[in-house]
Amino acid sequence: MKNWEVKKLGDVCSFFNGQAHERCIDENGKYKLINSKFVSSEGENFKRTNNALSPLFVNDIVMVMSDVPNGKTLAKCFVVDKEDTYTLNQRICVIRSNNFDTRFLYYQLNRNKYLLSFDNGENQSNLRKDDILNCEIFVPPLPEQKRIVAILDEAFAAIAKAKANAEQNLKNAKELFESYLQGVFEQGNKNWETKCLDDLGTITSSKRIYKSEYVKDGVPFYRTKEIKELSNGKNITLELFISRERYNEIKKSFGVPQINDLLMSAVGTIGEIMVIENNDEFYFKDGNIVWFKEFKSLDTNYLKFALTAFVEKIKNLAIGAAYSALTIEKLNKYQISYPKSIEEQQTIVQKLDALATETKKLEAIYQQKINDLEELKKSVLQKAFSGELKTAKVIA
């Protein structure tokens, strides 16, 4: 790095802001609108417009200036690859320079540590013009820039290929289990019964709990968030409670979930299923969660797998334009097939549990591989801008 100068971005690059396009969106428009969703999806998701309020040129680097709730877009960059194709939305900026190999500058800026760590004390992270122009960057000789870009391109192509393979393996593992699961319940057996859910048990919800009834400590009160976490074996952070007096009142007059009852999320995130396995006391939000009880001819875990097998079909029963909602009336008429023998149901559950366990192990392996590859990309970039990158073999 002895020949590398360090300069502020504003000393070697020009900066341009995008403009708001909200009133000129046209699905048949000539120009793709670059916004944070466009950049985060690497150009896959976009809107169109016929108004190029902020025209762009080949080799322009665009950067997201405001974060989103999931925190994955701030300082993320995209390199413009075609003339007369894009226009720029607000809170996205252009960085333009003739002093750099474009991809060298892109690699150096994309998710830059200084820009990512910048804190302006606001609820939403926002970069301003001066914040970006004060970012220090390395300016090595152009041949050195090109050498590093060639190595990074080769390394990242190999990483992308390995990541794509891991993602496909992850998808295959999930689809294999889902295919087997659906096969069990679609093929069934000629001796199995087929009935509507309301012929097999009771589907209901909870008594209404108002915000004024929440207390700081007492009996846990679950929403979809907690049901989803528990159904996926995760620890929960309890946030809401109701008083023991209110809980006992509901328990006496209406009843509360018991061992072998089943709860399923029914609003927004549909199909998260939790089987009640112990006597821990809790209550749950009406409307958001559906309560299956008194299904005496079914093993509860068999019912869980039967519902999981057709969760996409169940989601299609949902109504509501603003958000997805699954009604008890629709569920009551949903048909499932099942062996008459509880023992045969439990045998099926044991096989599915074993396969689900193995599938989760594979998923964990492939997900860890994906995570490791992302960390490797960061490591390669760090080597590139600390003068340690000699060859693409660093990914071996």
| Shape, per Cα inertia axes | elongated
Strand order of the largest sheet: 2-8-5-6
Low-confidence stretches: none
Q: Helical content, roughly?
A: 25-40%
Structural class: alpha+beta
Rounded Rg:
28 Å
Strand content: 15-25%
Please outline the major beta sheet.
Answer: 4 strands, antiparallel
Give the helix tally.
12
Number of strands: 19
Give the rounded overall mean pLDDT.
Answer: 88
Q: What is the CA–CA distance across the termini?
A: 24 Å
What are the key terms here?
four-stranded antiparallel sheet; 19 strands; 396 residues; alpha+beta; elongated
List the topology elements.
Blueprint: E1 5-8, H1 9-12, E2 14-17, E3 31-34, H2 36-40, E4 47-49, E5 61-64, E6 77-79, E7 86-88, E8 92-96, H3 102-109, H4 113-116, H5 129-133, E9 136-139, H6 142-187, E10 193-196, E11 202-204, E12 214-215, E13 219-222, H7 224-231, E14 241-242, H8 244-253, E15 262-265, E16 273-275, E17 283-284, E18 289-293, H9 300-309, H10 311-315, H11 328-332, E19 335-338, H12 342-384
Parallel strand pairs: 3-7, 13-17
Antiparallel strand pairs: 1-9, 2-8, 3-4, 5-6, 5-8, 10-19, 11-18, 12-14, 13-14, 15-16, 15-18
Helix pairs in contact: 6-9, 6-12
Structure description:
The structure is a single chain. Helix content is 39%, strand content 17%. The protein is an alpha+beta fold and 396 residues long. The strands form 6 sheets. Strands 2-8-5-6 form a 4-stranded antiparallel sheet. A 4-stranded antiparallel sheet has the order 11-18-15-16, with helices on both faces. Strands 12-14-13-17 form a 4-stranded mixed sheet. A hairpin with a 7-residue loop joins strand 15 and strand 16. The longest helix is centred in the middle third of the chain and has 46 residues, at 142-187.
